[in-house]
Write a structure and sequence with these properties.
The protein has 467 residues and is mainly α. It folds into two domains: 409 residues, MFS general substrate transporter like domains (Growth Hormone, Chain: A, Up-down Bundle); 54 residues. The C terminus is likely disordered. GO terms for molecular function: transmembrane transporter activity.
Length: 467
């Protein structure tokens, strides 16, 4: 029975992850239909991202307090309803508002999934296999979304990038109510920290907003620096509040767990490099190699296939034999190597020789690294804190995604502009900009390898699979 429960949790997680990239491919069609300008179009993505990232930590703690099943079902219901509303939106304001609601629903549903899995599978090896399945949905979801988005947009229209969630959400909701075990937390009275909730939600939302707007304003602009300062002050206030609160929203004691603090540091660096990689590669394939939206989606297919084989078939065995830390470092090293390979991409490049090998190598490395990292993030966490630990690792993942997209896009654009000014052709200038972004991505992954080596302690292989 718990295998079916795991399937429901992973299906919903995959649906939420897919939503980010499936909509990205449909953005040009949305722009043409609803009359978005280039600057306002970004808010179709940003509204979702800000709500999602800002509410993950709070959602995880709510799961600990009032029951993870209740939070999961509420989030899934809201996400499904918001998907319907997005699909029937008639103007820009409606779509952006409904995307915010969709992000809130996604946060509620996603924040508690990892905590529910660790509770569902207390046995070390069974838990390792379950986390491998969950990690596949996290690792491969974006690439699958690019394929689905290109297919739906080209064969139907952009509305279906939202409508596709309706049958999946409805079926998952019916199964979740029946299959997921009821759990009761101590209740809101035992842990409500309204002040802390306001500080962290406001701080995270403003931080993500600042990051995504930095591409428009530049990082040196007074508006960017001012917003960044306010967001950091809010988050600092949250930390001080948690240190003094009788029942904190985020118990700071979990950061004393080396695996938790180390895994979250590695997650930010890894996702910053890899989320931006998807954005840059989609542009390289379309603007330099001249692939259409559908072909671009399918061009990413080797990555999720490699991730599936590694995370679903080999990851648990490797963790059992060598330990999660060793597997994580090896997997991240392969990803860094793949990004370094892409940093040599040329304007007259070829998909089969310049992109495909890197996608396969990256899929293998990421498929090995992600289950090990997710396991580390939950290792040694007490059951009462599983929800907040799950929300924390998802929050750092989203912050890394926002940072990576903004920084790498800015790097690519700046380098492209400089090369154009020197008299290069547009394809040459674009390729040069993308190479700079890939090199930066490889550097971020190298830092992730260093962080994993220094911050995560070695364990016996048999102990590591508990993670």
């Amino acid at each position: 029975m718990r295998a079916f429960a795991l399937a429901v949790l992973c299906a919903v997680s995959l649906m939420v992850v897919l939503d980010g990239s499936i909509v990205a491919v449909a953005l040009p069609a949305i722009q043409n239909d609803l009359g978005f300008t280039p600057s306002t179009l970004a808010w179709v993505v940003n509204a979702y991202l800000i709500a999602f990232a800002g509410l993950l930590l709070l959602s995880g703690r709510l799961g600990d307090l009032i029951g993870r099943k209740r939070v999961f079902v509420t989030g899934l219901s809201l996400f499904t309803l918001a998907s319907l509303l997005c699909g029937i939106a008639q103007d820009q304001a409606q779509l952006i508002g409904f995307r915010f609601l969709q992000g809130a629903g996604g946060a509620l549903a996603s924040a508690v999934v990892l905590g529910m899995i660790t509770t569902l599978y207390p046995e070390p090896r069974a838990r390792a296999k379950a986390i491998g399945v969950y990690s596949f949905t996290q690792a491969a979801g974006s690439s699958i979304g690019l394929i689905a988005g290109g297919t739906l947009t080209q064969l139907l229209d952009w509305h279906w990038t939202f409508f596709v969630n309706l049958p999946i959400g409805a079926i998952a909701l019916a199964l979740a109510v029946r299959l997921l075990a009821d759990d009761r937390g101590p209740g809101l009275r035992d842990g409500t920290d309204v002040t802390g909730a306001g500080l962290v939600t406001g701080g995270l939302m403003l931080l993500v907003y600042t990051i995504v707007k930095a591409e428009e304003y530049t990082w040196a602009d007074a508006r960017t620096l001012g917003l960044l300062a306010v967001s950091l002050l809010l988050l600092a206030g949250f930390v001080l509040r948690q240190a003094k609160a009788r029942r904190p929203l985020l118990p700071l004691r979990i950061f004393r767990l080396r695996a938790v603090s180390g895994a979250n540091t590695v997650m930010v660096l890894m996702v910053a490099g890899l989320f931006g990689f998807q954005f840059i590669t989609a542009l390289y394939l379309q603007r330099v190699l001249q692939l259409d939206a559908l072909s671009t989606g399918f061009a990413f297919l080797p990555a999720p296939l490699s991730i599936a084989v590694m995370s679903l078939v080999f990851a648990e065995r490797l963790n059992h034999r060598f330990g999660a830390r060793t597997v994580l470092i090896g997997g991240l090293s392969l990803v860094a190597l793949a990004l370094g390979f892409l940093a040599t991409a040329q304007a007259d490049g070829d998909y089969a020789t310049d992109v495909l090998p890197a996608l396969v190598l990256m899929g293998v490395g990421f498929g090995a690294a992600m289950p090990a990292l997710m396991g580390q993030a939950m290792s040694d966490v007490a059951p009462a804190d599983a929800g907040v630990a799950s929300g924390l690792i998802n929050t750092t993942q989203q912050i890394g995604a926002a940072i990576g997209t903004a920084v790498l896009a800015t790097t690519a654009a700046s380098r492209t502009g400089s090369v154009l000014a020197e008299g290069a052709t547009m394809p040459e200038a674009l390729a040069s900009g993308y190479r700079a972004a890939y090199a930066l991505s490889a550097g971020l992954l190298a830092l992730a390898v260093f962080a994993a080596t220094v911050l995560l302690r070695a364990r016996k292989a048999q102990e590591a699979i508990v993670a």
